[in-house]
Amino acid sequence: MTHWTTRIANLTGVAMVFLTFPAAAAPIDASRSSLTATFRQMNVPVEGAFKRISGDVVFDVARPQDARAALDIDLASFDLGPGTEDYAVETRRKDWFDTTRFPRATFTLDCARALGGDRFEARGKLSLKGRVLDLVAQVVRRSESGVQVFEGQLPIRRLVFGIGEGEWRDPSVVADEVVVRFRLVVPARVAAAK
Amino acid sequence: MPSDRYGVPAVLLHWGMAVLVAGAWFVGDWMTDLSFSPLKLKVYSWHKWTGVLVFALLIVRIGVQISVRIAPRSAIPMPPSGRLAQGAHLLLYLLLALVPLSGWLFSSAAGFTTVWFGLWPIPDLVPKDAQLKELFQAVHNALTSVLAALVVLHLLAALKHHFIDRDRVLVRMVPGLKPRKSPDLLD
């Protein structure tokens, strides 16, 4: 039996989604999208991917100022590839993502503006491990057969979010800077095109 | 009469590499059981850096051996055991190259580039691949065991030469060491 507060929270969440995307939600195609984080340990670049992401992107090239976007990242899905299970287990622990307390991270777009050509600037908020920070990323947008593809990368500082605490704070072992790369594939909204 | 002792570069390289190989062996054996921690990541890197250093020194050492001629050991024809010793040394050299090489391939296949001393990335020869990783891990472990066995043989042979044969084989590599007098000459 779900507690009534949880239910209300869930309903509020659903309502929020509808409020955020009044026109029509345009969910990303998660199977073709990717979100990776590359960090350096002992100066060795190591890349991991968040295998489970979801989100909505509403974007009209002619009106970038009206863009809406939200991304939801399942932090427990961070994967460094086969044979690195010990890493995967470690990243879920309290010192890192602490996925029992903070199962997900979210990014919400505040505003977007055109930079010329295919390039846009996206400003938004990243909520990660109980901390919310403003981010700015340059995004390249392409239109392919029936989909829009948004790609970009941005450096973030893991220590600002408390990712890698305690004995893991030492940036000489795991560097503070982490490069996040994203590729979001958004199918065109055929029904709501008008 | 010229000394039959090894020159300073050869002696330094021999003992320097002996320390590095022994260190890498014991650390390599110990590090795999460490729980995931910053220490583990550091130790793995040090182990890899040591392996690359051994490989680099091996090349220098071969260069030194080619360029520096020392006085021949003796004019006496080599007994069959001497041929075996030559073969064992050749194998030792081969493994000093193959153990670091297999470790490098293992690290590459595991998806971790070796960055020597945290400064110089060594290109990955193979892409990240789970099956290749298993393969190179097994090869690295097996070659390491053979190298360890040969090092023990090398050590025992040196002691045998010094304490049983009482010849100059060990003396040539240990500065200041004098050959043991034959018991016949005592008294």
Descriptive account of the structure:
The complex is a heterodimer of chains A (194) and B (187). Chain A has 194 residues and is mainly beta. Chain A has a single domain (24-187), classed as Lipocalin. Chain A is 13% helix and 46% strand. Chain A contains two helices and ten strands. Chain A has helices at residues 4-20, 85-92, and strands at 34-41, 44-50, 53-58, 68-74, 78-79, 104-116, 119-128, 131-144, 147-157, 177-187. A ten-stranded antiparallel sheet of chain A has the order 3-4-6-7-8-9-10-1-2-5, covered by helices on one side. In chain A, a hairpin with a 2-residue loop joins strand 7 and strand 8. The longest helix of chain A has 17 residues, at 4-20. Chain A is globular. Chain B is mostly helical. Chain B has one domain. Chain B is built from four helices and two strands; from the N terminus they run αααββα. In chain B, strand 1 (114-116) and strand 2 (120-122) form a beta hairpin. The longest helix of chain B has 36 residues, at 130-165. Chain B is elongated and about 60 Å long. At the A-B interface, strand 2 and helix 2 of A face helix 2 and helix 4 of B.
